[in-house]
């Protein structure tokens, strides 16, 4: 910045010199044409050598002036050359400065001034902007409600975290849905120097519900009006953002703008970049009153303490009541009311430069806000069309948005060195647990995975569930990765009841899944499927963590613990609901077994009855599950008895038994030490037996495993000797833990293992 200013001063000095020297010269010449205070005529007649006024002295003076004129011309040429050099240096310096600024925004620069929050790259001022202290906390308020907004706000947060160098405190005005989703997300994200506070949006509805609103944001689009009342009384200032915002710079630069507010300025806003408030978009278009083009409220700087002193609450309410008498409703939610207040009180506004809210709706003047990448600060997708908006440069903006949309959020867990942060109990416990592990242990990576905290986004898609009045509902629980997405539609066709799925995906894969689901008529027609994204981290597939996530977030009293590769028989959902009543599952510890079969054919005419299944079993089209490779896993089901059974029958636990069962919601979780392939279900069934669950086989239920390529984890198990050694070690440790927890009753597991 200092280099730019010096260059500009040189440029200015050279320019003034270039103008000043010729001017002085001509004044001198003109003055030299006076004699005795009178102008001397320079007419050809009077300048003749024979003129009486022509003397030897004047001849010498004129010759001297001619010499001086030639010298001046030489000086001018030299100055022009110097000026061109100054210009070229200044241009290259500015380009270099832009490049340096961009690299520092990427986190690789070392400029102390930028780190302190100096606004750079867009200002024409040579003086520095007011600084933001290194460890000063920046407060951000966001209204977020529902499943879609909870998904959108993550991209905004990623863009802020990517550029930030200061502690952040997010104030989230959220409904119950958004709070559940975002509380889990931030708790498992564990980003240092980030604090989250929630405020119940449902409690604020009464404050704004009296205002009719046509905007697609609904009642939540009015809640920014009540932030002075909602946020803590000791909070003096806050940046308010819409969820469809993307940051392209450090938010500290925007925070620094608060220092520019003067007098009674309490609102920092960017001018609206469309003609909406001019009232000329269509015939009889009648917008709310606004000052000129009005202001867009996607980005707001609020001086809360001054607003409270000005009685903001009373101010906006009186304005809204007055305007609603003629306007009847708002079209742009809170933005209409903010503008109506500003129309009456223009002194309240500090107008932000337009690059702090580049608005990408149809028919905007946003192109006038930017000339190149360095001009972009905040991008606002303020059209219902979002990424499909019409804009000449929409591909560039879309790519910038997609960068953060698919960016690995785990990489944003960066420490802010030198800034004290509040003690996080979860983080401290995690560090303590990891410190107790022996890094030289050959099974260290297996043990570490047990304590890894995976970022989790619950209910990634819209979810609706109405509880059954008879309290017999059953949720199908399963987990999957990207390579099993093709099973979702088939399962939804076979199971009409609620489903809880945990998907192990990267950030980019989560977006692929979203596009896949939104393009599927089958999946979009089902609102009782809960999709919970567990983001990838580490080298193992955390199969039991995924199962636990899916189990924990069911809405029914019972659950069917299945796997994604199985298709349940048609009608199994209703059959299980009847079975839980008949077998009194509500009052007894039972695990109802659904017998498992498999086919080696990718195309299968699915049996519609038990009789048809038995016929296919006899013909060799179907087999009992893993009959050829792992008989012990399902042998205790007693398939021979099942063939003729008409009533449920009890079976005993045996070593390596791993059936698929229906249990109550309160059954124990899966043991997280087992990752990848091997013993993950076996250990769970063993624990159910230790807790005295009764295993009961259902006579008219079945499920069929569909063929697929071997998973990466089973390949590692088969090819890696150390993998198998570590799995054996973990099994032994699990059995020892069982003995400690269940005492003498658990000795049979050690005996059974030794005999198997």
Please specify the SSE layout and strand pairing.
Layout: H1 2-32, E1 34-35, E2 38-39, H2 56-105, H3 112-115, E3 138-144, H4 146-163, E4 168-174, H5 176-189, E5 194-200, H6 201-208, H7 227-230, E6 237-241, E7 245-247, H8 251-256, E8 267-271, E9 295-303, H9 304-309, H10 312-327, H11 334-344, E10 349-352, E11 358-359, E12 378-380, H12 394-405, H13 425-435, H14 444-449, E13 456-457, E14 474-481, H15 487-494, E15 499-505, H16 507-518, H17 521-524, E16 529-535, H18 543-552, E17 558-561, E18 566-568, H19 572-582, E19 590-594, E20 596-598, H20 610-619, E21 623-624, H21 639-644, E22 649-651, E23 660-664, H22 680-690, E24 694-697, E25 703-705, H23 712-719, H24 721-742, H25 747-755
Parallel strand pairs: 3-4, 3-6, 4-5, 8-10, 11-12, 14-15, 14-17, 15-16, 19-24, 20-25
Antiparallel strand pairs: 1-2, 6-9, 7-12, 8-9, 13-16, 17-23, 18-25, 19-23, 20-21, 22-24
Helix pairs in contact: 1-2, 4-5, 10-11
InterPro entries: Glyco_trans_8 (IPR002495), Nucleotide-diphossugar_trans (IPR029044), Xyl/GlcA_transferase (IPR051292)
Biased composition (Polar residues): 44-58
Organism: Podarcis muralis (Wall lizard)
Round the mean pLDDT to the nearest integer and report it.
Answer: 82
CATH secondary-structure class of the largest domain: Alpha Beta
Question: Based on helices, strands and strand pairing, what is the structural class?
Answer: alpha/beta
Percent of residues in beta strands = 5-15%
The domain tally reads 2
CATH architecture identity of the largest domain: Alpha-Beta Complex
Instruction: Give the N-terminus to C-terminus distance in angstroms.
Output: 76 Å
User: Oligomerization state of this entry?
Assistant: single chain
Tell me the CATH superfamily of the largest domain: Spore Coat Polysaccharide Biosynthesis Protein SpsA, Chain A
Q: What name is given to the CATH topology of the largest domain?
A: Spore Coat Polysaccharide Biosynthesis Protein SpsA, Chain A
Can you list the strand order of the major beta sheet? 13-16-15-14-17-23-19-24-22
- Count the beta strands: 25
């Amino acid at each position: 910045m200092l280099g730019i200013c010096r260059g500009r001063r040189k440029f200015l000095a050279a320019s003034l010199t270039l103008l000043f020297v010729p001017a002085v010269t001509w004044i001198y010449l003109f003055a030299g044409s006076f004699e005795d205070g009178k102008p001397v005529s320079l007419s050809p007649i009077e300048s003749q050598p024979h003129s009486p006024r022509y003397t030897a002295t004047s001849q010498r003076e004129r010759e001297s002036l001619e010499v001086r004129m030639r010298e001046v011309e030489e000086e001018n040429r030299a100055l022009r050359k110097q000026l061109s050099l100054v210009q070229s240096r200044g241009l290259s310096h500015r380009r270099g400065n832009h490049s340096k600024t961009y690299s520092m925004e990427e986190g690789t620069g070392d400029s102390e001034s930028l780190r302190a929050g100096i606004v750079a790259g867009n200002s024409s001022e040579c003086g520095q902007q007011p600084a933001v202290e290194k460890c000063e906390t920046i407060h951000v308020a966001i209204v977020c409600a529902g499943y879609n907004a909870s998904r959108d706000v993550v991209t905004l947060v990623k863009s802020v975290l990517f550029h930030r160098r200061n502690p952040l405190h997010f104030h989230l005005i959220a409904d119950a849905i958004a709070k559940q989703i975002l509380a889990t997300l931030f708790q498992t994200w564990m980003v240092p120097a980030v604090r989250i506070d929630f405020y119940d949006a449902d409690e604020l509805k009464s404050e704004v519900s009296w205002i009719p609103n046509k905007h697609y944001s609904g009642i939540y689009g009015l809640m920014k009006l009540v932030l002075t009342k909602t946020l803590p009384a000791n909070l003096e200032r806050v940046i308010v953002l819409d969820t469809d915002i993307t940051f392209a710079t450090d938010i500290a630069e925007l925070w620094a703008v608060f220092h520019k507010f003067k007098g009674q300025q309490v609102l920092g806003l960017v001018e609206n970049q469309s003609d909406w408030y001019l009232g000329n978009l269509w015939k009889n278009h009648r917008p709310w009153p606004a000052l000129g083009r009005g202001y867009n409220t996607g980005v707001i700087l609020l001086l809360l303490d001054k607003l409270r002193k000005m009685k903001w609450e009373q101010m906006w309410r009186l304005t809204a009541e007055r305007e609603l008498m003629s306007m009847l409703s708002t079209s742009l939610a809170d933005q209409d009311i903010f503008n109506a207040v500003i129309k009456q009180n223009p002194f309240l506004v500090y107008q932000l430069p337009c690059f702090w809210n580049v608005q990408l709706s149809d028919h905007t003047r946003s192109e006038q806000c930017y000339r190149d990448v360095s001009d972009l600060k905040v991008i606002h997708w303020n059209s219902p069309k979002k990424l499909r908006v019409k804009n000449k440069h929409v591909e560039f903006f879309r790519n910038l948005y997609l960068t953060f949309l698919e960016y690995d959020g785990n990489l944003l867990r960066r420490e802010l060195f030198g800034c004290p942060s509040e003690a996080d109990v979860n983080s401290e416990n995690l560090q303590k647990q990891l410190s107790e592990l022996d890094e030289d242990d050959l099974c260290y990576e297996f043990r570490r995975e047990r304590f890894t905290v995976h970022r989790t986004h619950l209910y990634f898609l819209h979810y609706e569930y109405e509880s059954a009045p008879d309290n017999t509902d059953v949720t199908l629980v399963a987990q999957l990765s990207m390579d099993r997405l093709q099973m979702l539609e088939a399962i939804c066709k076979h199971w009409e009841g609620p489903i809880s799925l945990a998907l192990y995906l990267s950030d980019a894969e989560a977006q692929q899944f979203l596009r896949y689901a939104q393009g599927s008529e089958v999946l979009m027609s089902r609102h009782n499927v809960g999709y919970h994204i567990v983001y990838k981290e580490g080298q193992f597939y955390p199969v039991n963590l995924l199962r636990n996530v899916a189990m924990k977030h069911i809405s029914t009293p019972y659950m069917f613990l299945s796997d994604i590769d199985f298709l349940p028989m048609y009608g199994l959902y209703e059959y299980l609901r009847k079975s839980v009543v008949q077998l009194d599952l509500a009052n007894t510890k039972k695990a109802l077994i659904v017998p498992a079969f498999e086919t080696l054919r990718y195309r299968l005419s699915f049996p519609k009855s038990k009789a048809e299944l038995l016929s296919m079993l006899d013909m060799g089209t179907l087999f009992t599950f893993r009959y050829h490779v792992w008989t012990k896993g399902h042998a205790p089901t007693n398939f021979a008895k099942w063939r003729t059974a008409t009533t449920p029958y009890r079976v005993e636990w045996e070593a390596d038994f791993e059936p698929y069962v229906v249990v109550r919601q309160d059954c124990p979780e899966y043991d997280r030490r087992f990752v990848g392939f091997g013993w993950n279900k076996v250990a769970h069934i063993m624990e159910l037996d230790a807790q005295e669950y009764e295993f009961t086989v259902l006579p008219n239920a079945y499920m069929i495993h569909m063929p697929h390529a071997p998973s990466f984890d089973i390949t590692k198990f088969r090819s890696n000797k150390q993998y198998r050694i570590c799995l054996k070690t973990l099994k032994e440790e699990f059995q020892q833990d069982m003995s400690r927890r269940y005492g003498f009753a658990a000795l049979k597991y050690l005996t059974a293992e030794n005999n198997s």
